[in-house]
Every structure is written in C-alpha cells, then in structure tokens.
Amino acid sequence: MDDDEFFADASARLGALHTPDGGFVDDPQLAAHNLATAAQRHGAAFRWKTPVTAVMRRGGRVRGVCLKDGTELSAGVVVNAAGPWSGQLNRLAEAGGDFTVGLRPLRQEVHLVAAPAGYHDAGGDGGGPVLADMDLGTSIRPEGREFLLVGGTEPECEGVPFRPWRSSGRR
Questions:
Q1: How far is C-alpha 81 from the chain's CA centre?
Q2: In this structure, what are the phi and psi dihedrals at residue 153, rounded to the nearest 5 degrees?
Q3: Is the CB of residue 28 less than 8 Å from the CB of residue 83?
Q4: Structure pTM?
Q5: Minimal CA–CA distance to 169: which of 135, 137, 132, 136?
Q6: Structure letter (DSSP) for residue 87
Q7: Which pLDDT tens digit goes with each residue over 98-107?
Q8: Which of 39, 58, 93, 161 has CB 3.0 to 4.6 Å from 63, enough for a Cys bridge?
Q9: Terminal-to-terminal C-alpha distance of the chain
Q10: 61 — phi, psi (to 5°)?
Q11: How far, in Å, CA of 24 to CA of 169, rounded?
Q12: Rounded to a whole number, what is the largest CA-CA distance in the chain?
C-alpha cells in the first residue's frame, strides 16, 4: 500500500478467468493417501521412510527408482508425492526444466473466517467460488460449508520476492 500506484486507476484491461470444472486440493496429505489407496487396490506396494537416491530413466521416460540400500524398483508410472522434497525428487528425475511454475516448500499465513451468508451457493455447485487477486497477492477459497480461508499468493514480504503468475511483471 506504500506504492504510489496502489490506488491508481487500472491502466490496462481488467479480466477474470472462470473455470467451472476447476478445483483445488485443500488437503495434500489426503490426496496422497487417496492415490496410495487406489494404487494398493491395483497391486502397488510401498516402502515407507526409504530414501530414493536415483531415478532410473529409459527412452527419455522415468522407469523406476533406486533406493539407498541399492534396491531398484521398476514401474510403468512413478508418482512424485514427496511433499516438501518434491523439488529434490524432480531434480533426480531430471524433470521440471520445462515447468513454467516453480516448485518449492512454502509456509503461508492464512486466516479462517466465517463465510458470509450465501457465499457457498454462489459457485453454482454449493462449493462457492475460489478467488485470487494476483496484483494484491490475496486469495479466498471455501473451507467446508461455513468458512473461508483468506491468504496470500506469495506477495513480497519477509524477504520473499513477489512472483506473479502473469508475465507482465507489473504489480
């Protein structure tokens, strides 16, 4: 708000993106659990707390992983559900060089507030809209039927540079 341009009228066209079939994962741990459960139903086995030291590739595709004890596990599909270590696993797999969005663990401050009456019905499916203002660095999304999570989109604060999702570089 200290920027002289903060309250200036828009100098470019304002727009929005409506994605009625879009969504978000509000519980990454539950999403990983659901993937694991589905994989187990199809015969997958898991090695918990077993460090991966290398990713095997063949024909330009990931084909498995090597474990710290030397065991090699081959697979037609390898799912990276490494949470905060996802970036390290991508580097082992030589994946991500062409990603347009970076990957790194972050802590974000969010606030749980009561949703205004009717908010959850505004999305048409009882879920309510998910909003993000990349210029202000704020976001709002439903949390259950009665609440909203209000947070940030990595605004410049505490020494973390602002990285908007749009390419103009303008705040």
A1: 12
A2: -125, 45
A3: yes
A4: 0.52
A5: 135
A6: H
A7: 777 766 666 6
A8: 58
A9: 11
A10: -125, 150
A11: 25
A12: 61
